[in-house]
Amino acid sequence: MSSFQKLSGGTLRCLSMTSRPSLILALLKLCICLLLAESSSKCFIRDDKAYCGQKNLYTVPVLPPDITYLDLTLNYISEIHEKSFYGLEALQILKIQQQEGRLVLRNNAFSGLSNLALLDLAYNEDLQVDPGAFNGLSNLQVLNLTECKLNGSILSGDYLRPLVSLEQLSLPGNKIPKIRPASFFVNMSKLHIVDISRTWMNSFCEEDLFHFQGKHFTLLKLHDIKMTDMTPYWSGWNKCGNPFRNMSMTVLDLSKNSFSVDVAVLFFKAIRGTKIHTLILNHSGSMGKGVWYNNLKDPDQNTFMDLSESARYRLDLSNGRIFALRNSVFRHMPDLEKI
To answer: I need a surface site. Which of 4, 206, 234, 264 has the fewest CB within 10 A?
Structure first.
């Protein structure tokens, strides 16, 4: 198909229509380049890294397709959906910390990001996560959900099911009253670091952590989880069982919990036989009588008796109220290397 252009003297010149698609394609490329330039100008880009924190962004910007690192911290992004990261399939590290206002993760929010290894969503208060938000993240190794006001369903529901390669899960500062991982955690063979600190639990027992059985944790962090029911007078000690049955830990962090000597004796009896390389009980304000609390006890030679088959090499009791260590207080722990 052709068109004609009239020249001087009445001569007509034939113009091929094939030139028009080329023009349209060139204009399209120009528009894309202008969009990239406009979006990228809001971010600092170095090599394959895009730093877009605190740029007053309301949506994920258009970026070069070779970006592997993207930081979107402290913006105004309210929703992540399946088209949000279109064209950014090379992403390996993604940080979306602390958005102003509520952040909603829609189903398939990270569609196409099969190369993503680290996802940091920390400090997004009232984070809303749709059930299929993490679909497609089959290679994700690290997930940080610190202080997002999530409840126990983040563990007991199906939200994390797609994360078959997960190695590290951080959930401190949420509202998780019970540690009850769903059955699919049994198949998360690579998971070895779990942090569920700074929450309010009445207790945690063998049936709660059942689907963690069979795992070796390099770090299981249960710092400051209150354990309000687990007093010396709690009627549930006998039926609670061993919360760490069939597990082992390089480091078990139970710091800043109310471990009086009497509670410690009952708890150590419950977890007897669990292999723990390092046990952290620092900032246990109820262990030891200190200078002023004569109604509380310092540890004696029977306090750590049931750790003889458990905590092997290191025991951290620092920043507590222990006034004096009696003779032979650690006699049941002959392999202890550091206190």
So the answer is: 4
- The Cα–Cα gap between 339 and 176 comes to 31
In the chain, the percentage of residues whose pLDDT exceeds 90 is 68
Give which of 221, 280, 215, 201 is closest to 244, Cα–Cα.
215
Give the domain CATH number at 171: 3.80.10.10
Selection from 114, 160, 153, 105 nearest residue 133 by Cα: 105
- E strands in 139-286: 142-144, 168-170, 193-195, 216-221, 248-253, 275-280
Q: What percent of the chain has pLDDT over 70?
A: 83
Mean pLDDT within 264-286: 90
- Are both 48 and 185 inside the same structural domain? yes
- For 229, counting Cβ atoms within 10 Å of its Cβ (0-12 exposed, 13-18 middle, 19+ buried), the class is middle
Task: Give Cβ neighbours of residue 328 (< 8 Å, ≥ 6 apart).
Answer: 301
